[in-house]
Specification:
The protein has about 300 residues and is mostly helical. The protein contains 8 helices and 3 strands, in the order αααααααββαβ. The longest helix has about 35 residues, at about 80-110. The mean pLDDT is about 80.
Length: about 300
């Protein structure tokens, strides 16, 4: 189990590595787009630049989320990470919309008898390099995101993959234009529109999940049921009620009233509460926020 500091350091390091790759890739795409006379590749470069911007947002958010609780933030700073993840989800949706509208516009040009510009080979090479690089960056980021259970990093990983998706459309369009010429350039916007729907799906899932956390939504049904099982299976617990759950950053938070034999001493009742806490922390991390109120069972 990672400590808050270790988790924050890992997340910032992985995201910073991705940011460096995005800077290099953005510059390469811009050069390839200009030299290869490809408007699609220049647009792809802008997409990579948006990855760079969200990398900065995620790094700032993760550093803030890694700070310990203080006088003004007594539950810690975990919500900042959730806010950053929601922001990345919104940016992903905007990018998907931009790709969709751009593709639609190009198709409209072809339908009305217009011609799309035929790009050069360097633009095709840049698209292939982008797909491979961004897919590797997606897998690298997602692997660490799941290890440290970071929603912000997972959202950013999908942002990397959205760039790979857009580059697939660019590659198909450029490749079709080079190989077939003429009206076949329309393959680019068609592929882009199809891929934009994958981006929409991921963006909506990320935004919905993190918006739920920001509005204090309860934990998933399976986790609530597991918490209930831990409580009722703890020796000395007669019953419980008023269970409330939520998530604060990477940590779960629960409030519950347990009922124990009214003949128990204060120390014995306290020991039962401590046992529940220990069992929950063993499952959900040492930094889980747990409030257990003990009452006599009548």
């Amino acid at each position: 189990m990672h400590t808050g500091k270790e988790r924050s350091e890992t997340a910032v390091k992985v995201t910073a590595n991705g940011m460096i790759v995005n800077i290099i890739l953005t510059i390469f795409k811009f050069i390839a787009g200009i030299l290869g006379n490809s408007a699609a590749m220049i647009a792809d470069a802008v997409h990579s630049f948006s990855d760079f911007v969200t990398d900065i947002v995620v790094i700032v958010g993760l550093k803030a989320a890694g700070k310990p609780a203080d006088h003004n933030h007594q539950y810690g700073h975990g919500k900042i990470e959730t806010l950053c993840a929601a922001f990345v989800g919104i940016v992903l949706f905007i990018i998907g919309l931009e790709i969709f509208l751009s593709g639609l516009g190009k198709i409209h040009v072809v339908i009305n008898g217009g011609n799309l510009q035929q790009p050069g080979l360097i633009a095709f090479i840049a698209a292939v390099v982008s797909i491979v690089t961004k897919e590797l960056l997606y897998r690298y980021t997602l692997n660490y995101a799941r290890k440290i259970k970071s929603d912000a990093m997972e959202a950013n990983a999908w942002h990397h993959r959205s760039d790979a998706f857009s580059s697939v459309g660019t590659m198909l369009g450029i490749g079709g234009a080079i190989a077939l010429g003429g009206k076949w350039v329309v393959l680019d916007p068609i592929a882009a529109i199809v891929l934009s729907f994958f981006i929409f799906k991921v963006a909506l899932e990320i935004t919905y999940r993190n918006a739920n956390e920001l509005t204090e939504a309860a934990l998933e049904k399976e986790i609530i049921e597991d918490i209930q099982h831990v409580i009722v299976s703890t020796e000395g617990v007669k019953d419980f009620h008023k269970l409330k759950t939520r998530k604060i950053g990477n940590n779960i938070a629960t409030d519950v009233h347990i009922q124990v034999d009214k003949g128990l001493s204060l120390i014995e009742a306290h020991d039962i509460c401590t046992e529940i806490e220990n069992r929950l922390r063993e499952k959900y991390g040492k930094e889980a926020i747990l409030y257990i109120h003990c009452e006599p069972y009548i």
